[in-house]
Every structure is written in C-alpha cells, then in structure tokens.
C-alpha cells in the first residue's frame, strides 16, 4: 500500500503562512476559493483533475492509453497543468502527481511565453511543494528548477522530465484524409497565422477555437496529418498536440522540435512536406513514444520507487 511520508496538513499550511509575500497571499486566497477543479476523470484508483478544457482533453487522452494492469496500491491524484491553482484539492489523501505543461524555456535556454505568463505566480512552485512527483513535459525546463527557483523553495517533489504522456501500445497509422489540420490558439496577425499563409503545399484547415474531444477528433480523422506550429520563436515540443495526433493515427508536420525527436525521421518537416514516406515516419515515431515515453511505464516506475521507499532503500528517480 502506497503511503508516502508527507508533512501534516497543518505543517504545510504553517510553512505557507510563514512567508506571506503578496504572491503567496494571492495563492492562499485562491486555494480557499478553488476547492474543486472543474474537470475530474477517474480510472480505477486514479483521479485526474484539470481546470481547463484543453487540459481535461490531455487527461482523457492519457487515460485512453493507460494499461489496465497498472497498480499503484492506493488512491492516486494526478493534477494536470500545475500552473493552475488546485486549491484545497492538493490535500487529498494518497499519492499526488503533478503534470507541468507550460513551455518555460526552449532548447537553447531562451525564456518562453510560459515563464512570462507564470512570472509572479507561485502556482508551479507550490505544486512542486505539495506533490510527491512532478512530471515536467520538457527537459528544457530543468533550467527553471535549477536556476530560477530560490534554493529555499526548491521542489519537495521528485521532478521527472520528458513527454511521458503516450500509450505503451502502438496505434495503427491512418492514411485516410486530405490536407493538414491545425488546432490551437491562433490570432489573425500572430506568428502561427503568418506561417500558415506562407505554406505552399497541402491545404491547411484551421480548427475554430474551443473545439475539443469528439468534435476535434472527427476533424483530425479527415486530414492527412496534423500541423504543429510554435506559438513563439524557438525550438521546443508541444507534446499534448503530438499525443492527440498520434491517438488518431496521424503523422505530424512540424517546425523543429526538441532533439529527442529527429526531423524527417520522427515527424515531417514543415517546408519539406513531400519528402519521406509518411507511414514510415509515423511508425518510427510510434516506436519511440511507446517505448520511451509511456505514461503507464512511468507510473510503474513511480510505484517501484514508492515500494523501495517503504523498504527504506529508495534513492529517487534520476534527475
């Protein structure tokens, strides 16, 4: 039975109150108000929580790929998007796993929009203090924890890096459909819109904002591939979009991603849409994500760590 050794709730609250800077006062106020996240999904003993529809979609897609035989030995809560406030939901019993989805730095160490958006907001820091484990989807964000976070505020959680949100079972390639599909935030005069206008190749369909779930999946099924364009300049990976495309059996056409994904090998390169066999690219991507970045396998590793800790032999995951 998993029973992680965590500070008593009053100890945690005392630590929060002890350093009541304005951001922490705002966090504490929101924690009291935000008693229960808007979206809650259950998979056996595992509860997924999220505040926004796009993060709830990520919860749903992780659940789709979960192996039924994953056993963690007790209640587990997974907080999807810890840049949002989960309030008193952080004090649920059992194992707590946070998923950090914001793009804070790119592959070259350049600060990105996620860092600017969360500046002055302690939600990510408190998530790292209150969770047992945090899965940060980007290895690039290691710089945030090692350089930006004050030493006395370093995560109490074990931080694990990488896009560990994929299924462990391979999804078949779906070659049906025409053109490319883009879904995500876009403005008429923004970077993404400008790049789409310059694409001289397959026609591009832009999904209306606020389209999620089955409505989005039906549109993806009608395209030959999913288009991935960065919100801002830089080299980084939008792992949730890649997951959505993969679960529908579609190859991704993208600007440069992090080095864990090889251009022309794991995804089609934007501007070279006619180069390479899309089915072979999809199969190589499938092999990589299911073998290296499976959420089920990560949960098994966490369960092993917890059992080791109970036996007094745990050393924690590699950082």
Describe the protein in words.
This protein is of the alpha/beta class and 319 residues long. It has 2 domains: 9-167 and 294-310, no CATH class; 180-292, 3-Layer(aba) Sandwich (Rossmann fold). It has helices at 9-18, 22-33, 53-64, 113-118, 123-130, 142-148, 191-198, 213-221, 239-247, 278-292, 295-310, and strands spanning 39-43, 46-50, 76-80, 95-100, 133-136, 158-161, 180-182, 204-206, 225-228, 251-254, 268-269. The strands form 2 sheets. A 6-stranded mixed β-sheet has the order 1-2-3-4-5-6, with helices on both faces. Strands 8-7-9-10-11 form a 5-stranded parallel β-sheet. It is globular and about 55 Å long.
Short description:
The chain contains eleven helices and eleven strands.
List keywords for this structure.
single chain; Rossmann fold; 319 residues; 35% helix; alpha/beta; 2 domains; 6-stranded mixed sheet; 11 strands; 5-stranded parallel sheet; disordered N terminus
Task: Estimate the global geometry from the Cα principal axes.
Answer: globular
Beta-strand percentage range: 5-15%
Radius of gyration: 20 Å
Number of domains: 2
Give the number of helices.
11
Q: Low-confidence segments, ≥5 residues, pLDDT <50?
A: 1-5
């Amino acid at each position: 039975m998993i029973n992680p050794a965590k500070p008593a709730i009053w100890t945690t609250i005392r630590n929060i109150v002890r350093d009541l800077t304005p951001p922490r006062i705002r966090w504490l106020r929101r924690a009291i108000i935000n008693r229960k996240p808007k979206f809650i999904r259950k998979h056996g003993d595992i509860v997924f929580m999220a505040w926004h529809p796009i993060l709830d979609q990520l919860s749903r897609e992780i659940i789709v790929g979960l192996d039924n035989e994953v056993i963690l030995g007790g209640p587990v809560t997974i907080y999807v998007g810890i840049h949002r406030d989960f309030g008193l939901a952080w004090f649920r019993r059992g194992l707590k796993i946070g998923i950090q989805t914001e793009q804070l730095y790119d592959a070259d160490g350049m600060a990105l929009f996620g860092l600017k958006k969360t500046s002055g907001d302690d939600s990510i820091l408190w998530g790292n203090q209150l969770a047992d484990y945090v899965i940060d989807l980007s290895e690039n964000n290691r710089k945030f924890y090692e350089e930006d976070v004050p030493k006395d505020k370093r995560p109490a959680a074990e931080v694990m890096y990488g896009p560990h949100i994929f299924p462990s079972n391979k999804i078949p390639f779906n070659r049906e459909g025409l053109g490319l599909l883009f879904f995500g935030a876009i403005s008429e005069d923004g970077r993404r819109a400008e790049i789409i206008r310059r694409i001289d190749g397959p026609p591009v369909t832009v999904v209306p904002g606020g389209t999620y779930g089955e409505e989005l999946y039906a549109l993806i099924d009608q395209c030959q591939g999913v288009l991935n364009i960065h919100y801002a300049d830089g080299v980084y990976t939008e792992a949730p979009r890649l997951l959505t495309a993969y679960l529908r059996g579609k190859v991704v056409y993208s600007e440069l991603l992090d080095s864990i994904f090889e251009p022309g090998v794991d995804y089609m390169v934007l501007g070279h849409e006619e180069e390479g066999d899309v089915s072979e690219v999809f199969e190589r991507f499938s092999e990589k994500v299911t073998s290296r970045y499976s959420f089920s396998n990560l949960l098994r590793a966490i369960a092993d760590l917890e059992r080791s800790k109970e036996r007094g032999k745990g050393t924690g995951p590699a950082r």
